[in-house]
Design brief:
It is a single chain. The protein is built from 11 helices and 9 strands. It is of the alpha+beta class. The protein folds into 2 domains: 202 residues, Cytochrome Bc1 Complex, Chain A, domain 1, CATH 3.30.830; 107 residues, Metalloenzyme, LuxS/M16 peptidase-like (Cytochrome Bc1 Complex, Chain A, domain 1). Helix 2 packs across helix 6, helix 3 runs parallel beside helix 7 and helix 8 packs across helix 10. It is globular. The N terminus is likely disordered. Keywords: Electron transport, Membrane, Mitochondrion, Mitochondrion inner membrane, Respiratory chain, Transit peptide, Transport.
Length: 360
């Protein structure tokens, strides 16, 4: 209980010291971190990730429809923007010089109020892009392992695949229905950096006034777990971990404790995973969601023997941590490292979006 409270207090202090402010008006939630810098950004974060799709791949297709044109602007006028797909949210982002927020808020708002979703764009540009991304993902054993780990951990909801299958039966009507379900006032949060919260609130209220009310139903997350083996002619890979069905700040501390990345250059680090075979590569994966989390160790190596040996060490490290075999010095270091990681994440807009989206 102490660690969880400390983590929450730390996050609150970090946001407060960064000039964080949140306003909720007419169902719209606006959050801003204003550091007074000249480079600003705004994201529209929508509850439209794979967790909420009724048909596999809908969120991925909707993501790739972004910036294909609206009733006000062609695709050529929106190429300066970016889109991010998470398991729970879809985020449209614009980066610009401070003072230009009026124009870019208007552009972003058009994506959720007047996207065309043209049938020819689905077949000519969206579908080929989805197929290319699906092929690239399936060829990366690390991506496959993490995706399978989510499916084993949560099955549906957070366990839904992040990307659409390379061959799918999704139609424009499916996309329009999903957009109508998720592009609502209750489902959108606006996150800005280096803008005035009052100005941003006024702009989005005007630009998004056409959105209807309504929220996407959320089925509570349940953790299952399991084991799976996939035959592949690629780099031997193993993922060992576990999940929870509640947000778990202590997992961030455990992630920092396990992370083998040394704090000082040229040192081996003090992580229990630092003793893995030199041929093996290791990555600690910590994914946190609104009502769940997944923590694991991703190991890759040139041979199955190397991966198996490294896997034994990883399992021991997880069991020792679970049994409370962490001394006070190691725990203090892990807490400090977790706080620093949280502070660093707030420095960039992408990290800010990921950190704040679930809260707002």
């Amino acid at each position: 209980m102490f660690r969880r409270s400390a983590a929450r207090a730390c996050r609150a202090r970090l946001l407060q010291s960064s000039g964080f402010a949140t306003v909720s008006e007419s169902l719209l939630k606006v959050s801003v971190v204003d550091g007074g810098r000249p480079a600003a950004s705004v994201s529209l974060v929508l509850k439209a990730g794979p967790r909420f799709e009724a048909k596999p791949g809908l969120a991925h297709v909707l993501k790739n429809f972004a910036f294909k044109g609206t009733s006000q602007r062609s695709a050529l006028k929106t190429v300066v923007l970016s889109v991010t797909l998470g398991r729970e949210y879809l985020a449209f982002t614009a980066q610009f010089l401070r003072g230009d927020e009026k124009y870019f808020v208007d552009v972003l708002s058009g994506l959720v109020t007047s996207s065309n979703f043209a049938n020819h764009e689905l077949h000519e540009s969206v579908a080929p892009q989805i197929e290319a991304e699906a092929r690239a993902a399936s060829a990366d054993p690390a991506v496959v392992a993490i995706d399978v780990a989510h499916t084993l951990a949560f099955r549906s909801g957070l366990g839904n695949p992040l990307l659409a299958p390379s061959h799918n039966t999704i139609t424009v009507e499916d996309v329009k229905a999903f957009a109508a379900q998720t592009f609502t006032k209750d489902n959108v949060a606006i996150i800005g950096s280096n803008v005035q919260v009052a100005d941003l609130t006024q702009l989005v209220q005007k630009s998004l006034e056409g959105l209807t009310s309504g929220t996407t139903a959320t089925i509570p997350t349940k953790y299952y777990g399991g084991e799976s083996r996939i035959s592949a002619h690629t780099l031997p890979t193993i993922f060992i971990g576990f999940g929870t069905s509640t947000p778990s700040p202590p997992l961030a501390v455990l992630s920092s404790y396990l992370d083998p990345t040394p704090s000082m250059k040229w040192s081996e680090g003090l992580s229990p995973l630092s003793v893995l075979p030199v041929e093996a590569s290791v990555q600690v994966v910590h994914e946190s969601y609104s009502d769940g989390a997944l923590l694991g160790i991703l190991i890759q190596g040139p041979t199955t023997e190397v991966v198996k040996e490294a896997g034994k060490i990883a399992v021991k490290a997880l069991k020792d941590a679970g049994a409370g075999a962490i001394n006070s010095d190691a725990l203090t270091r892990a807490l400090s490292k977790a706080r620093f990681s949280a502070a660093s994440a707030l420095e960039g807009h992408e990290g800010l979006t990921a950190s704040v989206a679930a809260q707002v």
